[in-house]
Design a protein that fits this description.
Layout lengths: L8 E2 L2 H7 L5 E16 L5 E8 L4 E7 L5 H5 L6 E11 L2 E11 L2 H9 L2 H19 L4 H20 L13 H19 L4
Parallel strand pairs: 1-2
Antiparallel strand pairs: 2-3, 2-5, 3-4, 5-6
């Protein structure tokens, strides 16, 4: 049975990828199951392939039938939120958690994870302010009104939306980051080409 992992340092998946080397080290992560599939190994035995995502990064966790977490992980479905504590090392298939402790996250832990880290939250708040300021600066009153109405009616959902499912800004709040970047690009292009 795995030890209590509550004292293990909690990292984002991005931090985990940077921290893990060839020697096992104790860490825990909070993530959502992005996909779950059971597959046959080269010997015909079943293994699970879970794609985990925490908004900063994603990893694929391959769980073979000899793993102590196999039966528990087999009950997980796409969309479930988990804590995975283990001794992590870099192995043949990428990050390899050993002696795993797995549990489903509580509702408040999910909310914390969805909010992102403080640096991401601050960047998204600044991006939202710049979008709002950009809309306020639009000279045409009709376009300014449409932009303002959009933020009034859909601002909260806009702040939570991802820009994509798999590619750029595929995280909560990613759409705000993407739109703010595109607005900054448009301003610079307009400076270079005043006729626009």
């Amino acid at each position: 049975m795995p030890e209590d992992v509550s004292d293990f340092e909690k990292l984002s998946l991005r931090q985990l990828k940077q921290a893990v080397g060839p020697t096992p080290e104790p860490f825990r992560v909070h993530a959502q199951i992005e996909s779950a599939a059971q597959k046959p190994s080269s010997t015909g035995k079943p293994y699970l392939e879970l794609k985990l995502n925490d908004g900063t990064e994603s990893i694929t966790w391959r769980i073979f039938d000899s793993n102590n977490a196999f039966n528990q992980a087999a009950s997980l479905e796409k969309g479930d939120w988990i804590e995975l504590g283990a001794y992590w090392e870099s192995g043949k298939y990428g990050l390899d958690p050993r002696n795993c402790a797995l549990r489903v996250l509580k509702a408040d832990e999910v909310e914390t994870l969805l909010a992102g880290d403080e640096e991401t939250r601050e960047r998204q708040r600044a991006d939202y302010r710049s979008i709002s300021d950009f809309i306020d600066s639009i000279i045409d009153p009709r376009l300014r009104g449409v932009g303002s109405l959009f933020l009034q009616q859909h601002g909260d959902r806009f702040k939570r939306a991802a820009a994509a499912r798999d590619y750029h800004h595929a995280r909560r709040g990613g759409l705000v980051e993407h739109v703010a970047q595109m607005m900054r690009c448009a301003v610079k292009i307009a400076e270079a080409y005043p006729g626009l």
